[in-house]
Amino acid sequence: MNDSLEISRRYFLGKCTGVSVGSIAMAAMAREGAFGNEPSPNLGFSGLGLGNLPHFPARAKSVIFLTQSGGPSQIELFDEKPDLRKWAGTELPDSIRKGQRLTTMTAKQKQLIKPAATQFHRSKSGSTVGEWLPYTAAVADELCFIKSMHTDEINHAPAMTKMLTGNQIPGRPSIGSWVSYGLGSTNKNLPDYLVLISKMQRPSDQPLYDHYWGSGFLPSRYQGVKLRNAREPVLYLRDPDGMPRALRREMLDSLASINAQRLKDTGDPEIATRIQQYEMAFRMQSSVPDLTDLSDEPAEIFELYGPDSRRPGSYAANCILARRLVERGVRFVQLFHPDWDHHSRLTSWCTARCRDTDQASAALVTDLKRRGLLDDTLVVWGGEFGRGVAGQGQWDSPEAGRDHHPRCFTMWMAGGGVKAGFSYGKTDDFSYNVAENPVHVRDLHATIMHLMGVDHERFTYRLQGLDFRLTGVEQAGVVKDILA
């Protein structure tokens, strides 16, 4: 066959369809001037999301997801079960366990009950918070606790993948990517979706995979942008020495023109992503240094967030950055704090993670409220699952820990249209099974989307003839009882 007649399917569709993918992308990108004060004829800014969203008035404009990776123990932190003390050291009844799956780490040992290692504070509204979280306890009347969360996966990677993408298998868009795709951002100089990972003071062997904030089958421009917990939050933003700003602008304009022609010819949406990434990087050269320079924060703020807030990359410093991001109109901010996987030495390691995060998490809620931002910012705190009631190892030893437990765990939310000082759902007397008002991860996703003005059943993306959605095809519903 003559080479001139060999054309790709993508090229054929781009040239021959009435409205090509490339045409649609370029039309969307041309809605606004691309460069703010430096307009370019080659590219527009598509920051406002899909034209048919939101479906109804949103209660939350932004989300800050405080992701505690590893599975915090609800038994020590939130789900008070004082009667466990009288059953200490006895075997978990079969009527409670019901043959549920255990990991290989505890499947062959006796399931001997380990009571909580903490006492609990009870707030004015009746919320219970363990003594290892004194700052969280002090703001408990601002929080909405969901004590009946449950999921399907018992190991970290599939459970966290389910928590963040709605499916245990990598390849689906993360919730932040769905929000970015659907709602966009009002800030032209920062990505819609930003990810901050704590710089730990001791090594953590718990991996945080890129697909946790990936865009899956959505165009890659909607994936989370990870800010490094280092001196340069984003690599390669700085121009080389001797590169004038005006020359960089001309280079990008010329490159955008070439890419726009290629996009017109092929209809490849990834070219549109590439154009936008180059332009976003240009804008971030000024916006990111301004964002991450905390020198304009008063001393009172560092006192509020705690002494660790002055350490770049710490969880506390990242909480301040999260507030600064939503102030600037960023739609979805995700913080990751790893090392909550306490199979041993629970009383020392869990308390250390609480010290890392407690004051800053509470300070973030307080800070947002003081600034009038909490009403339309939804803060979510939680991990991928909880911990089991049986002690791992010798139950009464200081070396004892707890194994993974997906059947029930606790998360909390604040602001953004949820009830303050409210606890929803209950577990049985062993914090082993949900006893009242179960909330699956899919229900959590549906509720977050609802608070952002999106009907999770109507918000889909067509791929290979199927309409995919964050909550999948299984039953999922908005938890209406927690809405303010």
Core attributes:
single chain, 484 residues, two-stranded antiparallel ribbon, 13 helices
Helix content: 25-40%
DSSP E strands, number: 17
Q: Write down the overall geometry.
A: globular
Q: What's the CATH topology name?
A: Alkaline Phosphatase, subunit A
Q: Over all CA atoms, what is the radius of gyration?
A: 24 Å
Molecular structure report:
With 484 residues, this protein is α/β, with parallel strands linked by helices. The chain has one domain: Alkaline Phosphatase, subunit A (3-Layer(aba) Sandwich). The protein contains 13 helices and 17 strands. The strands form 5 sheets. Strands 1, 4, 5, 6, 7, 8, 11, 12 and 15 form a 9-stranded mixed sheet that branches. The chain has a two-stranded antiparallel sheet with strand order 2-3. The chain has a two-stranded antiparallel sheet with strand order 9-10. A hairpin with a 2-residue loop joins strand 16 and strand 17 (466-468).
